[in-house]
């Protein structure tokens, strides 16, 4: 059995280094369970002459193994002719697994080094560990150099957006503002690649390939890239730097995948994006999220925070350090600069995405987008115009807080893929329902979420809605069955006493069933991911129409006592 579980080539800045790196996932059982004599002999061979190896199978041995593997990589590299190699080692939830990373300039030679290191660990079953290190160095030295990294150094302004919730909406708003300024904008996100507002390639392009495709377009003069967790972990960021970065927030999502098990670890991944923001640029950070605000300590760029609270400690601290802030004062989006009066940009009620100020999350997205656009050098008047003309509809922000009317029934479609997203959806549903009317929710989840998160979504949906239905996403089961997901959502709903739940095989069938039950003034919501266009078509075929900003504002007013 080989100790090399995975060798991954990261083409750009990543969790471990601000440049291309090799990531090894190693099974260190042989080292963790080796005899004291074998472990000591190995330590001496790689230059750890006074190391305390600890007893086999203990936490002390695991710590020794992490230190020893890092030293092993350097020792094999040095004997192969590469001196002063930086190496990072991370433990995982499995005490017999380690992640090792080191930067590379030549792909072939770096991959050979990684495999050679694994061969040494495999040799723990043999007596001659010393000879294994020598053989590994010879193999690594003889390898063909291979090509260099493909990381792109941008020649146009780049705004990179990351976070758990709101990154797609925020990146779309920034791109819209830049287009309002007359710039030819390219942007990549989870829906695809857009050039000057036109979708040119559908698919999830929130990784390095999306950024590369945008920057390769010769006419593009301004780029907006949505950067997701998966791309950072699996491929690295495709750009050497960005000019402005945005981190919307960090909440529990996609945990238990690729060695990221906690929200703190997830924040570390997201923090790669502001870490590579150029020194003269701006890192736009959510001042109301402690994990995001803490990224100030890792950046070279200037900090620009956004917060709904003008008196928050984050705003005070950043301004006192010479940074900037965007906040809300008396219902106005305002920019704060040290030693100057607030600059009121626009009233929240005049920003359609905030739903007349109702949507807390979209208020934050508005603050983030305004900050990033200003930080990128777009004129104040253009930013105001862009915020006022970006609508929560299928044209400007497909699949995110899209409102429709079918007769006197309101319908809202949103991704709502995690706890924070679902709570935001329920918040705006409550904000537009008339007194005495009901909330009807068609819920569905994707399969690559932890069990407890799926159960929690079921609990929130059942607690906050009057009628709950399950509408499955067949295209996004990701190794699960509909029965598994059904049971988990129902288990969460049972915690709050809700058991009367009907299941539908598709999102559109769930939507149709709830609209059929709805009465005038009710609000129907669909957690939509797989069948967005089909849902739009169904709504249109049944006499529905998108809500204009004036219609939405009227609904908000009618909902207030």
UniProtKB/TrEMBL annotation:
The keyword RNA-binding does not apply. Residues 161-372 form the Mur ligase central domain. Residues 399-527 form the Mur ligase C-terminal domain. GO terms for molecular function: acid-amino acid ligase activity; ATP binding. Signal peptide: none annotated. It comes from the Bacteria. Keywords: Ligase. PANTHER family: CYANOPHYCIN SYNTHETASE, MUR LIGASE FAMILY MEMBER. This is Mur ligase. It comes from Nocardioides donggukensis.
């Amino acid at each position: 059995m080989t100790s090399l579980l995975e060798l991954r080539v990261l083409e750009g800045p990543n969790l471990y280094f601000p440049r291309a790196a090799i990531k090894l996932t190693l099974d260190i059982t042989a080292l963790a369970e080796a005899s004291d004599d074998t472990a000591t002999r190995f330590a001496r061979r790689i230059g750890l002459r006074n190391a305390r190896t600890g007893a086999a199978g203990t936490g002390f041995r695991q710590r020794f193994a992490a230190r020893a593997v890092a030293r092993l990589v350097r020792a094999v590299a040095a004997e192969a002719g590469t001196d002063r190699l930086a190496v990072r080692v991370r433990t995982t939830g499995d005490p017999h697994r380690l992640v090792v990373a080191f930067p590379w300039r030549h792909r072939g030679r770096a991959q050979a080094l990684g495999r050679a290191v694994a061969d040494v660990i495999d040799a723990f079953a043999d007596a001659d560990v010393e000879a294994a290190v020598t053989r590994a160095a010879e193999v690594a030295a003889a390898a063909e150099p291979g090509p260099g990294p493909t990381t792109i150094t941008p020649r146009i302004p780049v705004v990179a957006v990351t976070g758990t919730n709101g990154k797609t909406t925020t990146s779309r708003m920034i791109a819209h503002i830049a287009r309002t300024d007359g710039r030819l904008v390219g942007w990549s996100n989870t829906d695809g690649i857009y050039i000057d507002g036109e979708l040119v390639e559908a698919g999830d392009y929130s990784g390095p390939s999306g950024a590369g495709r945008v920057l390769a377009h010769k006419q593009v003069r301004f780029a907006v890239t949505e950067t997701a967790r998966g791309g950072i972990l699996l491929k690295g960021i495709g750009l050497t730097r960005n000019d402005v970065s945005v981190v919307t927030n960090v909440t529990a999502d996609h945990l238990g995948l690729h060695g990221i098990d906690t929200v703190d670890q997830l924040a570390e991944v997201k923090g790669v994006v502001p870490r590579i923001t150029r020194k003269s640029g701006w890192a736009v950070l959510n001042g109301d999220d402690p994990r995001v605000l803490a990224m100030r300590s890792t950046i070279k760029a200037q900090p620009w925070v956004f917060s709904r609270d003008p008196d928050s400690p984050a705003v005070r601290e950043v301004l006192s350090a010479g940074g900037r802030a965007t906040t809300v004062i008396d219902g106005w989006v305002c920019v704060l600069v040290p030693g100057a009066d607030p600059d009121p940009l626009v009233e929240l009620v005049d920003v359609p995405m905030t739903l007349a100020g109702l949507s807390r999350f979209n208020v934050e997205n508005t603050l983030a987008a305004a900050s990033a656009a200003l930080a990128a050098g777009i004129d104040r008047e253009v930013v105001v115009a862009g915020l006022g003309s970006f609508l929560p509809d299928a044209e400007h922000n497909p699949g995110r807080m899209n409102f429709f009317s079918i007769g006197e029934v309101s319908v809202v479609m949103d991704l709502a893929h995690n706890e924070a997203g679902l709570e935001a959806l329920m918040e705006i549903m409550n904000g537009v329902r008339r007194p005495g009317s009901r909330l009807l929710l068609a819920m569905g989840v994707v399969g690559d979420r932890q069990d407890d998160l799926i159960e929690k979504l079921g609990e929130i949906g059942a607690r906050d809605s009057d009628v709950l239905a399950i509408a499955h996403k067949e295209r996004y089961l990701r190794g699960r069955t509909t029965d598994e997901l059904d049971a988990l959502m129902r288990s969460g709903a049972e915690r709050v006493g809700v058991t009367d739940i009907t299941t539908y095989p598709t999102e559109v069938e769930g939507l149709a069933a709830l609209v059929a039950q709805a009465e005038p003034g009710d609000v129907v919501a669909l957690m939509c991911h797989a069948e967005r266009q089909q849902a739009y078509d169904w709504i249109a075929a049944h006499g529905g129409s998108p809500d204009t900003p004036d219609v939405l504002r009227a609904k908000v007013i009618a909902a207030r006592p």
